[in-house]
């Protein structure tokens, strides 16, 4: 964690004493991480037709091949090129199906921006870095981070900064381009690894990619906010005959509906993904998340940088967390596929294991602890002092409550980081007493390092 005086100075420089930037975003009250109000009739009609098309597609597939894994079902429902939820809809925000922390308050994104600047300073101010966001949603988080970078332009003046967005949804990439560049982008640029390029309103180059492997190598800071929870999971159930995989099949009693079934025998996924020491009787595993973490760890080990993951999840303790969201309400995961967001809690213990020791890992730490360590209370005080009307004052307090209240987002969301081993001071190393002063603790994770 940056020492308090330095953190105050960094916050003041980045955010401005008068609370520069937009006021906290408008949002309706909610009791959980996602629930809100409904969407329009036209979207409902479009959703119904997509559900019919996607359901027809799945029914034909199941009749031809038999039951499919939950991972295959999620992949089809979310990213099918013709009818997938993310490729066609991607409903973030009040008019969509779920809301995220950056949509609630600009303070969230600003503090994430401070985190990257803090790490850049702690790592010796490299001459260039790439900020790579996985699944950037509407681009709100990157927009808030870019505003912090602009406020600290004098600090970053000798650093070559570029933004790289990994996004599979054509609809969302259009929304991102509009927000970040004003829509001034070049499709199909000469650089074939990127499918779109532009320059941010603050003058920083931005590129879009469909896969993290397409992002060029180099010193990079990675960001994954509510990204891993939407990746396909395999579900497993312990039975008297051993582990069986949960599959999706046609309901024989209602031929146009789907149901869960257990595999009659062990599947390849059962053999590969369920650990011998597993004590739970129901397990969800996301191998795709494991692959991505391995790639991030390899890149950080080779090129330097860091990765920050923010998501709801657990440390290898939960069992059945697979659920759907539509119009900010819980939605049956097997109904109207293609019209709802499907998600499962991230297993941070699994992510840590998949880093395979290539990098150090920190966390998971609760969102409220991370944001408090980053100085959210200080930022709130500044904004409250400069709010001139009661409505703004109440909105600030409401946004803060949404982000920090343990019963809302405060304890539901966690932060997790990958860093090079040399970034963390090792208190057990007694040699080299003449070496430089110890490295500063990692911002946001200060509480963990002090324990």
UniProtKB/TrEMBL annotation:
Organism: Rissa tridactyla (Black-legged kittiwake)
Keywords carried by this UniProt record: Methyltransferase, Mitochondrion, Transferase, Transit peptide
Keyword presence, Mitochondrion: yes
MF term (GO), any: protein-arginine omega-N symmetric methyltransferase activity
Biological function: Arginine methyltransferase involved in the assembly or stability of mitochondrial NADH:ubiquinone oxidoreductase complex (complex I). Acts by mediating symmetric dimethylation of 'Arg-118' of NDUFS2 after it assembles into the complex I, stabilizing the early intermediate complex.
Highest taxon of the lineage: Eukaryota
A Pfam family annotated for this UniProt entry: Methyltransf_28
Protein name per the record: Protein arginine methyltransferase NDUFAF7
Chief location: mitochondrion
Family to which the UniProt record says this protein belongs: Belongs to the NDUFAF7 family.
């Amino acid at each position: 964690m940056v020492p308090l005086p330095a953190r105050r100075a960094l916050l003041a420089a980045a955010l401005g004493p008068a609370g520069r930037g937009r006021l906290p975003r408008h949002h309706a009250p909610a009791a959980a991480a996602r629930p809100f109000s409904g969407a329009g009739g036209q979207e409902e009609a479009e959703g119904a037709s997509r559900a019919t098309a996607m359901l027809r597609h799945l029914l034909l597939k199941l009749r031809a091949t038999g039951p499919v894994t939950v991972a295959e079902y999620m992949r089809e429902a979310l990213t099918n090129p013709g009818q997938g939820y993310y490729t066609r809809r991607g409903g973030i925000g009040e008019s969509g199906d779920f809301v995220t922390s950056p949509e609630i308050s600009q303070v969230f994104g600003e503090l994430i921006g401070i985190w990257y600047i803090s790490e850049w300073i702690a790592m010796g101010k490299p001459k260039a870095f790439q900020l790579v966001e996985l699944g950037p949603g509407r681009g709100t988080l990157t927009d808030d981070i870019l505003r912090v970078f602009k406020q600290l332009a004098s600090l970053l003046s000798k650093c070559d900064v570029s933004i790289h967005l990994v996004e599979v949804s054509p609809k969302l990439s259009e929304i991102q381009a509009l927000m970040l560049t004003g829509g001034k982008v070049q499709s199909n640029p000469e650089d074939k690894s990127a499918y779109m390029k532009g320059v941010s309103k603050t003058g920083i180059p931005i590129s879009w990619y469909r896969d993290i492997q397409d992002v060029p190598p180099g010193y990079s800071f990675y960001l994954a906010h509510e990204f891993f929870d939407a990746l396909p999971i395999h579900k497993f159930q312990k039975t008297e005959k051993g582990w069986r995989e949960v599959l999706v099949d046609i309901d024989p009693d209602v031929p146009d509906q789907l149901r869960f079934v257990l595999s009659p025998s062990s599947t390849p996924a059962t053999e590969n993904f369920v650990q011998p020491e597993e004590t739970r009787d129901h397990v969800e595993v996301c191998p795709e998340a494991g692959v991505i973490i391995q790639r991030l760890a390899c890149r950080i080990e080779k090129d330097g940088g860091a990765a920050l993951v923010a998501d709801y999840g657990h440390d290898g303790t939960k069992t059945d967390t697979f659920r759907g969201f539509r119009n900010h309400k819980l939605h049956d995961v097997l109904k109207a596929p293609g019209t709802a967001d499907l998600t499962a809690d991230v297993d941070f213990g699994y992510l840590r294991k998949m880093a395979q020791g290539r990098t150090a890992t920190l966390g998971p730490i609760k969102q409220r602890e991370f944001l408090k360590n980053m100085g959210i209370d200080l930022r709130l005080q500044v904004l409250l002092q400069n709010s001139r009307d009661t409505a703004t004052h109440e909105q600030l307090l409401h946004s803060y409550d949404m982000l920090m209240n343990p019963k809302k987002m405060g304890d539901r969301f966690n932060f997790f980081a990958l860093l090079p081993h040399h970034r963390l001071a090792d208190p057990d190393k007694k040699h080299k007493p003449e070496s430089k002063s110890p490295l500063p603790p990692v911002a946001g994770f200060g509480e963990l390092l002090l324990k």
